[in-house]
Amino acid sequence: MAPTTAGPRVLLKRMREIMVERISPQARLDKIVSLIAANMVAEVCSIYLVKQGGWLELFATEGLNKTAVHKTRLKMGEGIVGDVAKNGRPLNLSDAPAHPNFSYRPETGEDPYQSMLGVPILRGSRAVGVLAVQNATHRNYGEEEVEALQTIAMVLAEMVVSGSLVELGEIDAGPKRDRPWRGQGVVFCEGIAMGRAILHEPRVKVEKLIADDIGAERLRLDKAISELREAIDAMLATEDTVITGETRDVLEAYRMFAHDRGWLAKLREAVTSGLTAEAAVERVQNDTRARMARLTDPIIKDRLHDLDDLANRLLRHLTGKADTAAHDTLPADVVLFARTMGPAELLDYDRSKIRGLVLEEGSPTSHVAIVARALDIPVVGRIENVLEQIEQNDWVIADGDTAEIHIRPAHDVREAYRHKLALRAQRQATFAAMRTQPSITKDGERIRLMMNAGLLADLPHLEETGAEGIGLFRTELQFMISSAMPRLQDLITLYSAVLDGAAGKPVVFRTLDLGGDKVLPYARPMPEENPAMGWRAIRMTLDRPALLRYQIRALLRAAAGRDVDIMFPMVAEVAEFRAARALVDRELERLSNMKAQPPRKVRVGTMLEVPALAFQLPSLLTTADFISVGSNDLMQFFFASDRGNPRLGTRYDLLSPPMLNFLKGIVEAAKARGVPVTLCGEMAGRPLEAMALIGLGFRSLSMAPASIGPVKQMLLALNTGEVSSFMDSLPDRHEHSLREQLKLLAINERVPI
Question: Is 99 noted as a catalytic residue in this protein?
Answer without folding.
Answer: no
